[in-house]
């Protein structure tokens, strides 16, 4: 029963995320919104809707371990496992603009998270700063992408990639978007509820459940998009999407959540995982800068690194691991 609630919640989050984006892109195309705006505001921002709904729900239920654990764990999973799997399918192009702009934004967001961990909370003041940082990041993307051709613009290419296929009607797009938001809200509630019961059933901490289980659910939309983009050789979209989504989640998602409901920073996350996330973001930049692409061998390295991190989290929980770990 517990597993069913959790799985149902995570599936609803995945489905709701896709329906919301499809509906929003459909509405944007019906009103002839420029592709650049669609790529930045509609697609990129809505990509982190699963994180927003689940993080807010966990925070309002008084579960900061699940809120912050899911957010941190999802970013680590995206940067290591998801990006590594994408590179394994097809080497991932990583232009200098994407590495320096989006990678630096992610790294700065990680440093801001470390600052919150040092204070022991994510306060409303910190949330306001994060939202302001998000606005500045969006403005930077807009001005650096203005007048660029689609093949040289990640947001433009992202918008066109997600806009392929039949255009839904105005009513259909609106219905898809509203239905997506409803499924996201319901899925977020069931995910958090299922995670709480699963932690009790297994005797695990909610921090561990957040870092592993909730993180996997939040990353599933990025995994699907990245693998699909890699299969179709749209790798620039994938790299920019993962780096940008990380920066968005640590600014917009965490900022809005803390403005609504300030979060106490769990000691375990403050002592280790925030530094691991920042370290991953830092190490990833030179890996992406090597010939401006992420090769298959480096993709394998990222996958192995995530395996090691997962083993570390389980070992910290007290579970026995093979001697090779």
Give the SSE map.
Elements: H1 2-30, H2 35-47, H3 49-60, H4 64-89, E1 92-93, H5 96-119, E2 121-122, H6 124-145, H7 154-162, H8 170-202, H9 206-231, H10 235-260, E3 263-264, H11 267-289, E4 293-294, H12 296-317
Antiparallel strand pairs: 1-4, 2-3
What does this structure look like?
The chain is mainly α and 325 residues long. It has a single domain, classed as NCX, central ion-binding region (A middle domain of Talin 1, Up-down Bundle). The chain is 82% helix and 2% strand. Helix 5 runs parallel beside helix 10 (235-260).
Oligomeric state, counting identical vs distinct chains:
single chain
Strand segment count:
4
Summed over residues and divided by their number, the pLDDT gives a mean of 87
Q: Which CATH-level-2 architecture? A: Up-down Bundle
Strand order of the largest sheet: 1-4
Number of domains: 1
Strand content: under 5%
How many H/I helices?
A: 12
Largest sheet: 2 strands, antiparallel
Over the alpha carbons, how many angstroms does the gyration radius reach? Answer: 19 Å
Run of helices and strands: HHHHEHEHHHHHEHEH
Find the CATH superfamily. Answer: NCX, central ion-binding region
Shape: globular
Short structural summary:
This protein has 325 residues and is mostly helical.
Write a concise keyword list for the protein shown above.
325 residues; mainly alpha; A middle domain of Talin 1; two-stranded antiparallel sheet; two-stranded antiparallel ribbon; 82% helix; globular
